[in-house]
Fold this protein.
Amino acid sequence: MSIRKKPPIFPIINATLLIGISLVMLIPFLNILAGSFSDGQAILKGEVSVFPVQFTFDHYMAVFKNMAIWRAFGITIWVTIAGTALSLLFTSLMGYGLSKSYLKGRSLMMLLIIITMIFPAPLIPSYLVVKSFGLLDSLHALIIPGLISAFNLVIMITFFRGIPKALTDAATIDGCDEFNIFGRIILPLSLPSLTTIGLFYAVSYWNGYMGAIMYLRNPSLFTLQVKLRQLLVENDVGSMDSGMLMSIEGIRMATIIVATVPILFIYPMIQKHFIKGAMLGSIKG
């Protein structure tokens, strides 16, 4: 007589709890999405929940007609792409060097890196440093100060130290120098980890706000997040259609969606590498 096993209770409770929490976290986003497609009067009357009321594209049309939004969107894309590429390059190079136990001064460098994780640089000294290098009112000020994240650097150091030394020794015997070993062996093996920290860097650059507020004065250099702040805080609708001023709340919601959705599309495309990189980091750490 076979004994029928009862289904485990914990996975069911865990899944139900996580789904419930996810739905609760999703409601504000759905509310903003619904409001961006709703009539302005319905928004002002508080009739919009998670479904659009009197469906309309007027708010998006007002946003897309604003050239300042397009300029800020393009600047944000440029900063995100250039910043992420440079950050990955310098983080991987520095991480590979610090993963070598024979490197002189390695312990001191690691100590300084850990200190920056615990005690971040204050705003005023950071501003003075950027000013002393002549980076004020330049897009370089949005990239260079945060070029290497200490947290991401530690992840890469941990990953590089987990690569079998036999691989690099064999390449050295075959006549490869350090740059060839790094480019032909280390980087291809590091793709999952690079994808993981690349996502961290991309989100950081895309959502970058404080740097733009501190270092930029020229409105033509403002990023999308700064433009979004002007809409949310200062009611600055710029060159938007004056007939849409009655639904400024809808314009704000549409701008939030425009600023949020692009970065959301990145994760599904690299989900496979992201999960693999996170698992490798947990195993090798």
Q: What stands out?
A: The longest helix spans residues 67-98. The chain has two domains: 1-56, 61-284.
